[in-house]
Q: What sequence folds into this?
């Protein structure tokens, strides 16, 4: 291999620029244009969600969910520490306290068996983060939430196209969020969506997304003028972003199929390394249909993980590790608390290495597998 192989390379379907030109020709570049409406319709149809709202990011969608949860300062929200900072930040901004619980060693998702013991009278919600597009154990989480009258918010940033018992991730809890960041399967550069699955939140979500105004009712002819009625912010993406996204959604099945082919090639090609005890491959979890968002390996320990990443870098292969657990971060210690010592979270975070996975790397993949086996076996 003579060229550097990046960790990620954004895929284009071929119609993105054409649709952006169409959006310009339509004369509507701001939010809620024709392409935004197309994307909303696609998301609602293909996830089964009651209502979908495009946002400028998954972070924005999580912030909308936090407002909809009507959190007050001191309220608690249970979530894993092994997640991106936006999962916690969205709730901290409302004055709430993230309460971190440990993850499962098989799926790397929140350990549903540890949620109930972390609940206090201040607990208002549980955030289920679907790591690598692999579903959390949603039946158990929903049962706990029902018992204690808690909201369930799905952080399905990595989960578009994944399912739990046949249901699309993001459509199972009361609220769900998706990401279309350039590192995700379906992209718009930056972008996200809020999926509303409980009719109680639909009208208020429209208001919050429109800066706290009832502008959406005005545009529908339901009021003769619009005004400020609630808190909110500017969560709408430009219709240019939606036009780019629409081209991606049209190619959804192609993108999913090609990523799954790459994922399976890794899984088959690296079986020998797992059998020799050099690393652990991802586990395929019962009832969870994953979307091939990422392919990761669990190395023996931190020292071997770092040495492995460095060795691949010298071969011009960019592999990366993932999150630093939030409970160990300076802001995490200031704004949140951990329920227990989170031993699995700590151990997993020191062992994960993510391999390149992007459409177009097919010719590179045999060489990557060869070098992975060579370096992991040293």
A:
């Amino acid at each position: 291999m003579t060229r550097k192989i990046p960790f990620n390379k954004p895929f284009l379907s071929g119609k993105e620029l054409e649709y952006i030109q169409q959006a310009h020709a339509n004369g509507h570049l701001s939010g809620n244009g024709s392409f935004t409406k197309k994307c909303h319709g696609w998301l609602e149809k293909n996830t089964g969600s009651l209502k979908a709202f495009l946002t400028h990011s998954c972070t924005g969608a999580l912030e909308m969910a936090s407002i909809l949860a009507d959190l007050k300062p001191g309220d608690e929200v249970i979530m894993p520490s092994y997640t991106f900072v936006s999962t916690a930040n969205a709730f901290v901004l409302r004055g709430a306290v993230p309460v971190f619980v440990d993850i499962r060693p098989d799926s790397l998702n929140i350990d549903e068996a540890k949620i109930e013991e972390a609940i206090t009278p201040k607990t208002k919600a549980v955030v289920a983060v679907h790591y690598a597009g692999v579903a959390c154990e949603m039946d158990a989480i929903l049962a706990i939430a029902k018992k204690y009258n808690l909201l369930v918010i799905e952080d399905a940033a990595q989960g578009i196209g994944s399912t739990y018992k046949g249901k699309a991730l993001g459509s199972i809890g009361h609220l769900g969020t998706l990401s279309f960041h350039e590192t995700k399967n379906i992209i718009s550069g930056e972008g996200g969506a809020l999926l509303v699955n409980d009719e109680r939140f639909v009208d208020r979500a429209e208001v919050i997304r429109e800066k706290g105004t009832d502008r959406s009712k005005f545009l529908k002819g339901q009021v003769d003028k619009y005004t400020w009625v609630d808190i909110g912010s500017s969560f709408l993406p430009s219709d240019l972003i939606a036009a780019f996204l629409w081209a991606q959604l049209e190619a959804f099945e192609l993108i999913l199929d090609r990523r799954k082919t790459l994922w399976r090639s890794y899984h088959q090609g690296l079986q020998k390394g797992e059998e020799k005890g050099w690393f652990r491959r991802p586990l395929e979890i019962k009832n969870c249909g994953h979307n091939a968002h990422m392919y990761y390996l669990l190395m023996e320990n931190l020292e071997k993980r770092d040495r492995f990443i460095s060795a691949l870098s010298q071969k011009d292969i960019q592999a990366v590790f993932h999150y630093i657990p939030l409970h160990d971060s300076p802001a995490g210690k200031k704004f949140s608390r951990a329920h227990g010592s989170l031993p699995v979270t700590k151990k997993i975070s020191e062992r994960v290495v993510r391999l390149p996975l992007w459409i177009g790397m097919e010719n590179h993949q045999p060489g990557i597998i060869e070098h992975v086996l060579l370096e992991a076996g040293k």
Summary: The chain has a mean pLDDT of 96. DSSP finds 14 helices and 13 strands in the chain.
